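ligand=MRU
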Amino acid sequence: MSSTDELCSLRWDPVSKGVEVIDQTLLPHALRWCRLESLPAFCHAISTMQVRGAPLIGITAAFGLANALAEDASNENLARASAALMATRPTAVNLRWALDQITCAVKSLEPSQRPLVALHRALSLREEDIVNCERIGANGLQLLSALNKDQLNIMTHCNAGWLATVQWGTALAPIYKAHASGIPVHVWVSETRPRNQGTNLTAWELHRAGVPCTIVTDNSCGQLMRQRKVDCVIVGSDRTAANGDVCNKVGTYLKALAARASDIPFYVALPESTIDWSCPSGEQIPIEERDESEVLSIGGLDAAGDYGEVKLAASHSTAFNPAFDVTPADLVAALITEHGNFDASVKGLQQLGAIASDT
Ligand code: MRU
């Protein structure tokens, strides 16, 4: 994979001056771009998960705020639009981080100057995300190479590939780098109930890149690790606390426990923008609770190729649907970041912070 010749998840058209995103709710059955032209459209895209994945949520929100300022650059609208975007999803801290980046760039400016500056900052956040994710790939490749395997079997959960960022991804970036450097890689993709980001997104993007992969049920992952069919696990993160606790898609914690029980390294790949320095531990991270319909029904193609939703549960059944969980830092073998690889601990995070503030 190179950063220039592959698809990206969000593009800016300088001619029509518009933002387009891949509508991820349609994948893997259709690849359709959708144009975001108003604040409600940006909010809708994030809350309905047309775009998702912590870094991409942040970049989309940055463009959404820039779009809102192009309509009305007053202080009132800056606060109103930022609050509307902030309310779309609670867990991924990149959302708050990206809105802060735009707000800091414009708040001391005259309203007439704000739209252009906000757009340029959103464009630079997009470029920085690509560079950071490629660095995460290079740093993660060092850890994969150190495993010294002729063939690497890597397990991942949810989607932390280029669909969740702009290009490269976080957890998948080291895998793309390993594949490009000629290391034979095979990926165990856990389906990631209830929204199936593994089945629908990760398997789709790995297949496009020619990386061999196999979809497995979430419940089979512990057994695969116990049977030593997994050399390491790499996942992304939606928010990492200052003590190294990691919040990621629900089911991540169970994988980390199984990896520890089988003595398999469990890596978490994330950009610095995913670290919530104000959050002392995973206990304080807000966990999004999504609608029970995601658990009680499922969507897919019927025999005629038409998309539809079917009910799984009896009509009287109810469900609880937390979208994320917290993995304690001591289960994490390393945090793979654009600044290098660090211990998941207060000390490791402090080292990361010191290096980040020098760059
Ligand atoms: O609910 P989603 O699909 O937005 O959740 C995404 C994840 O949990 C990813 O693993 C996480 O954002 C890391 S992405 C680079």
